[in-house]
Amino acid sequence: MTHALAMIRTNPTALVLDPEVLARCVDACFDCAQSCTACADACLGESDPASLVRCISLDLDCADVCVAAGRVLSRETAATQNTIRPVVEACARLCGMCADECGRHAEMHEHCRVCEEACRQCEGACGQLLESLRPL
Prior knowledge:
This protein has helices spanning about 5-10, 20-45, 55-75, 80-105, 110-130. It is mainly alpha-helical. The longest helix is centred in the N-terminal third of the chain and has 27 residues, at about 20-45. The radius of gyration is 16 Å and the shape is elongated.
């Protein structure tokens, strides 16, 4: 069990979401944020970082959105689908964009391959969470 799941289970309020689906998404968001931050840093260390400007930019945007999503999802006490849905949709969308861009560089740069994988996992976890929400 992850700490995210343990913390979710300790919250005394009634949960809006399935605890395991929620915890997987929280973990994926923070994991993706770390991978994207590290990928951007590694891109800057490459011999031609100018050719990776779009990748760096998407890495940093994705990392920021993933952190925000992970933090919002970690606050269940007053959570509503009206706040959760747009944050998770944005996270999934940005993860997909970042994964696509990192995928273009994955054969040349291992850090981009790893980042693409983390972004796809987060995109999937966000998708599962969105599927578990009732329609608005």
